[in-house]
Amino acid sequence: xxxxxxxxxxxxxxxxxxxxxxxxxxxxxxxxxxxxxxxxxxxxxxxxxxxxxxxxxxxxxxxxxxxxxxxxxxxxxxxxxxxxxxxxxxxxxxxxxxxxxxxxxxxxxxxxxxxxxxxxxxxxxxxxxxxxxxxxxxxxxxxxxxxxxxxxxxxxxxxxxxxxxxxxxxxxxxxxxxxxx
Length: 181
What we know:
The chain has 181 residues and is mainly alpha-helical.
């Protein structure tokens, strides 16, 4: 365990900083998902990288030692985690983990789900509503746009009870509803 006051990087920057195709694809992702900067994409890439490496480890353990209890437990843990977040279906295999994309991770962020549910007019506005404390999950205020929403929590996303947007007569809420209609 490290020093608690010293935060560590949760992402790794790309090896080729000025690769045109990567920069263009990151720009499209940043616009589509309303991300603040490229580090958010790199963080999602790092999460995906960890899941993929875990899947490769399990596949390697399966091929070398077979279906040992430790291998089965690790596989079930990995698949269960990804199923809980809605990244894999109920009958998913280990190969499905290797085929996940960064977009799949970005789709499970609170910011994206708030926008997709129609609680905001744009991904940028969804981010602003979250950081200003207008969004709650199951009645609990959440102010982190990058929060990974599980399938169980998705139905509980709504405006915070004491928020000004909690009132249906609010002007901004009316504009949001009119745009969706």
